[in-house]
Amino acid sequence: RLERFAALRGAAARPGQLWDAVLLTAADTAQAGAFREQLEEKLRRGELPRGIRYLVCADPPGPRIGNGGSTLHALRCLEEQFGDQWTSFTVLLIHSGGYSQRLPNASALGKIFTALPLGDPLFSGGSSIMQSILEPGCVIGQGSVIEYSRIGAEVSLGNSSIVSGSEINFSVEIPSDCFLSSVSVRINDRVQYVTIVFGVGDNLKQSVKSLSDIHCLRFFGASFPQCLHLWGMEASEQLFSCEDTRLGLWTASIFPVCSTRGDSVRMSLQMVNSVQHMSPFKLSGFQLLSVEEMLAYKDVEDMLKFRKQIYDEICLQRQKV
Question: Which residues neighbour 228 within 8 Å (Cβ) at sequence distance 6 or greater?
Answer without folding.
Answer: 234, 235, 239, 254
